Please model this.
Amino acid sequence: MEQKKKIYETTFIVNASLDDAQIDGVIEKAKEIVTKNGGEIRDLYKWGRKRFAYPLKKKNNGFYVVAEFSAPGDVVGKLERHYELDENILRYLTLVLDKIALKARLAPSDLAKQATSEPTSPETGRFPRRDSSVPPVPDQKASLPNPSKQVQP
Model:
């Protein structure tokens, strides 16, 4: 019986002190584990070198990689086992993408359509202004008493 494939997203941080060829080797090894175990890589994003907010394993920088793949459930355990054993992977996170998350993602063609269909005013070609019947917010500084003009008893 064939296991049902789910869609996963994994993010992992590679040691940034490695050469680009070595980083690509670490990424290829992770891709190979997914594909050898019946999975398929859907998207791979290399975010590049980023500085950490705090040190991770005594490192200040890391190379971020995000991969989206479809695979049977047992592949995630094998992939995370690889992450644990590879000393060049500083941290990782793997998530199951549910139907709501998949619907929320827009394809690049949908983003282009959305950008061209922004609401504009036919007269000016700009976004419509706020309704002029709504009164403006009062200035709070004008309503505060001036401390230099205090009344003397």
Remarks:
- Residues 20-36 form the longest helix (17 residues).
- The two ends are 92 Å apart (CA to CA).
- The beta strands are 6-15, 40-56, 59-71, 89-96.
- The longest strand covers residues 40-56.
